[in-house]
Design brief:
It comes from Fictibacillus fluitans. By secondary structure, the protein is an alpha/beta fold. About 30% of the residues lie in helices and about 25% in strands. The chain has two domains: about 190 residues, Quinone Oxidoreductase, Chain A, domain 1; about 140 residues, 3-Layer(aba) Sandwich (Rossmann fold). Helix 4 links the parallel strand 9 and strand 10.
């Protein structure tokens, strides 16, 4: 089981234009702990968390830091306490930010946050989905408290800010499946079209105030808002557009203090979603991520949901990953960018 393997990592935190921002390295093939799966990685996808962790900052790493928190692959080994998977199983998962990422030939992951890969998806299509699917599911159903029974959501609406991005593309589909009236923000013709194709009943621009645009379309205030882009920038616009006693969930950290007293008059609930919380703190309900990905796997196989993969890059190496990071940092990405080990 031991030996060397290929990986892509970093020693210095640099702009993506610098060839040393991500480099090809050889590291020891890891050995699974008691609850770990050793996964032979077949495809990975790139998320904003990768570019944030990699971005320019002080400090250097003695050992290469490995990024990548979206994996599809095949179980190649397991720890003594693993009960849910066996060698040869095809799996998909998002991993944890507390451990090395999956930008390597083999990767270790706790089985409680892993699920069997949807049978109808390729490794590339599956790798695009775990982190964004978990974020969207937890944001909608755990944090905002949207009902899983579509009948209970009749007449209720949700505004999804940043609808054409990775999380938005799956949140649109889940919100539509849950029976909500779905409004997505999109500013370009291609992002508007993408949002409509993935479940938006209406699109509005995130560059203008939300409430007047909703009213122009004959809509009232939104019962829920899911903020996937710049909490700071949209804060006051969200306060105007949210219905009294409505709920807002954001996945984006703030860079400036926000006036939370704006929540008071309408008795608004504001909550944050961070997909790594359960794995980072090994919460009692950590296995829920296995359950969510399993449930969503069925939804992919039943064609209720579709993969949001839009671009596959290959081969797996530092140059390809720098390209993927660069695409993401352009701010113009629609859906998900995946790097394949198979091509």
């Amino acid at each position: 089981m031991s030996g060397k393997m290929k990986a892509v990592g970093l020693y210095k935190y640099l702009p993506i234009s610098d060839p040393e921002s991500l480099v090809d390295v050889e590291i020891e093939k890891p050995v699974p702990g008691e609850k770990d799966l050793l996964v032979n990685v077949k495809a990975i996808s790139v998320n904003p968390v990768d570019t944030k962790v990699r971005g320019p900052k002080e400090g250097m790493e003695k050992e290469p830091k490995i990024l990548g928190w979206d994996v599809s692959g095949i179980v190649a080994g397991s720890g003594s306490e693993v009960t849910m998977f066996k060698e040869g199983d095809e799996v998909y998962y998002a991993g944890t930010i507390a451990r090395p990422g999956g930008n390597s030939d083999y990767h270790l992951v706790d089985e409680r946050i892993v699920a069997h890969k949807p049978k109808t998806l390729s490794h590339e299509e599956a790798a695009a989905m775990p982190l964004t699917s978990l974020t969207a599911w937890e944001g909608l159903f755990d944090r905002l408290g949207v009902s899983l029974a579509p009948d209970e959501n009749k007449g209720k609406s949700i505004l999804i800010i940043g609808a054409a991005g990775g999380v938005g593309s799956i949140a649109l589909q889940l919100a539509k499946w849950a029976g909500l009236t779905v409004i997505g923000t999109a500013s370009r013709p291609e992002t508007k079209e993408w949002a409509k194709e993935h479940g938006a009943d209406y699109t509005i621009s995130h560059y203008e105030d939300f409430l007047p645009q909703l009213k122009q379309k004959g809509l009232t205030e939104a019962d829920y808002i899911f903020c996937l882009n710049s909490t700071d920038e949209h804060w006051e616009k969200m306060m105007e557009a949210i219905a009294p006693q409505g709920k807002i969930c954001s996945i984006v950290e703030t860079s400036t203090p926000l006036d939370i007293s704006l929540l008071q008059q309408k008795s608004i609930t504001f909550v944050m979603e961070f997909m790594f919380t359960r794995s980072l703190f090994e919460t009692d309900d950590m296995i829920k991520q296995h359950e969510i990905l399993t449930e969503m796997g069925k939804m992919f196989d039943d064609r209720i949901l579709t993969s949001t993969l839009t671009e596959t890059l290959a081969p797996f190496n530092a140059e390809t990953l720098r390209k993927a990071h660069s695409r993401l940092e352009s701010g113009k990405t629609i859906g998900k960018v995946v790097v394949s080990h198979n091509k």
